[in-house]
Amino acid sequence: MTNPIINSSPDWELSIWTSIAFFAAYAVYLSVYRLWYSPIAHLPGPKLAALTQYYEFYHDTIRGSQYILSIEEMHKKYGPVVRINPWEVHVSDSDFHSELYTGSACHRHKWLLWEKHLGAPHSGLMSLGHDHHQMRRAPMDQFLSSKSVWDLQVIIENKANALLDRLRHEAKNPPAQPINVMYPLSAYTIDVINEIAFARNDHLIERSDFGAATTDSLLKATQVGSIAVHKNGAMASFNALPEAVLGRWVPGKSSASV
User: Fold this and answer.
1) Which regions span the lipid bilayer (predicted)?
2) Distance between CA atoms of 143 and 137, rounded to whole angstroms?
């Protein structure tokens, strides 16, 4: 016998209820797996963190990069090893250092979600496999050698001297408002990076405000970074937008010089 209620329901209504039932069943299955059958289910930590990544998303994005402080509180409550989300474990133990940083003796592989964070899957930084990363890194080895690093010392020292000269000048001629030390240090960092990596000099150290707009723009850009960590493909979506839209609506895209 057919069910008259189902027969009388429009196809779209049946599809909606079927979808709801499917997602509800999947949510129950996922919850049971993460809480009791995951390979890291036995590790201590907040159940909400083990259940969903949105616990981390709340502290990282809504509260503004506060999850690291929450992890510190977890260690005080649960011990040196805690589960911080459905997939990851955080260790606060100095003895674990030798296990984590083994050098070339042990090959490490990044996980798939890492590749999607910055929207640059073909870059060396986002390479998942150890051997693949080594292959992509090889062309840069000459720039990372001890000799190359020592050759950069001149640039670093010149910028440091320029910053010291500028600060001495400000000390002799105090401005109307106190200087936020973040801006001089940021100007120094950006000038060094730009000259070493891009062979250009924006002279932020020499500007009256130490290029405050550039630093502020970069700080705003970090807001996008916290979203990208939790929303796979977010950076790829941002990069696909027209420049005019990026400059107006995406934090940090309008005036960042790096």
Assistant:
1) 16-37
2) 10
Q: CA–CA separation, 46 vs 43, rounded Å? A: 10
What are the tens digits of pLDDT across the range 60-85? 888 888 899 999 999 999 999 999 99
Question: Residue 20: how many CB atoms within 10 A of its CB?
Answer: 10
Dihedrals φ, ψ of 216, to 5°? -60, -40
Specify which residues 89 forms β-bridges with.
83
- Do residues 48 and 55 lie in contact, with contact meaning Cβ atoms separated by under 8 Å? yes
Q: Is 89 helix (H, G, I), strand (E, B) or coil?
A: strand
- The C-alpha R_g of the chain, in whole angstroms, comes to 25
Alpha carbon 13 to chain centroid distance?
A: 41
Q: Give, as one character, the DSSP assignment of residue 96.
A: G
**Alpha-carbon gap, residue 170 to 110, rounded angstroms:** 47
Write the single-letter amino acid at 92. Answer: S
CB 214 within 8 A of CB 183: no
Distance, in Å, from the CA atom of 192 to the CA atom of 156, rounded to the nearest integer, reads: 6
pLDDT digits (tens, 9 = 90+) for 32-45: 999 999 999 999 99
The pTM assigned to this predicted structure is: 0.70
Query: What's the mean per-residue pLDDT of the chain?
Result: 84
Q: State the average pLDDT over residues 14-20.
A: 89
**82 pairs with which residues across the strands?**
90
Q: Would you give the distance in Å from CA 9 to the centre of its chain?
A: 47
Helix, coil or strand: residue 83: strand
Are the CB atoms for 128 and 109 separated by under 8 Å? yes
* Cα-based angle 218, 220, 224 (whole degrees, multiple of 5): 105
Tally: H helices and E strands in the chain: 14, 2
